[in-house]
């Protein structure tokens, strides 16, 4: 089996996945834009071969790298970066090389554009904040008349809390339209008073969870805008309501054979149209592991030795995909 790993050096703990897969007989073929000598030795030992491109932003170069590996090792069975930034490129590469074990280019917008995520939540019957794709001040004011202040604006296709704004009055709304990036499509949402939590899982080839946990953290928008301290923790025991919402969302998105990091608000008060205090409201879907060193936190959980079992699970997912 051949697994192309895009940018395997980031984050540093990616070598763990590569190592476990390689020990299960998988060829791990790395592509990145740093010199081979700069790779951590553990990662070097975990790769079957490494191909350096001048920039991962140069699609033609990355395409040639995958073509090289295909010529040398045969058909590519799997291609992943597990990085939000590269998901669209991953999907395009799968389309170009007919790699059937992941999301292809014609479906990537469903998990990258926030407005399309709402459709999946609706299909799953998971409550979500009302929204509008605002293009003019008049359209924005009409939406505000419907939901009231405050509202939240952010790029429809964006990563993290970048360019996210909480707008509390007409003056701030005017400032937003004066200063916004006119090349970006923005989504405006009703404000939801709730604690940010997540449903994190590995989903098998039938769309069922093999491993489930979650994260509690302050809202990243508040951290960025208000300069708050950053902290979060992994929940030892998941609330049944959150498990139910996460599993419903997985079905709504139709996700199979991958990591997921789904964000929800836990309501701090009753809200018409969304639910009662303590209910969960769908926010955003990220079809990759939680960021940073969160997988290392999973690894401390007594129910799973994260990297060893994840390597085995990924290998099992590959075997299952080859049989279907």
From TrEMBL:
Q: Which Pfam families match?
A: ATP-grasp_4
Q: Where are the transmembrane segments?
A: none
Domain (ATP-grasp): give its ranges. Answer: 118-312
Chloroplast recorded as keyword: no
Molecular function GO labels: ATP binding; ligase activity; metal ion binding
Q: Which UniProt keywords apply?
A: ATP-binding, Ligase, Nucleotide-binding
InterPro entries reported for this sequence: ATP-dep_AA_Ligase (IPR052032), ATP-grasp (IPR011761), ATP_grasp_subdomain_1 (IPR013815)
Q: Which PANTHER family match?
A: ATP-GRASP ENZYME FSQD, FUMIPYRROLE BIOSYNTHESIS PROTEIN C
Which protein is depicted? ATP-grasp domain protein
Organism encoding this protein: Leptotrichia wadei
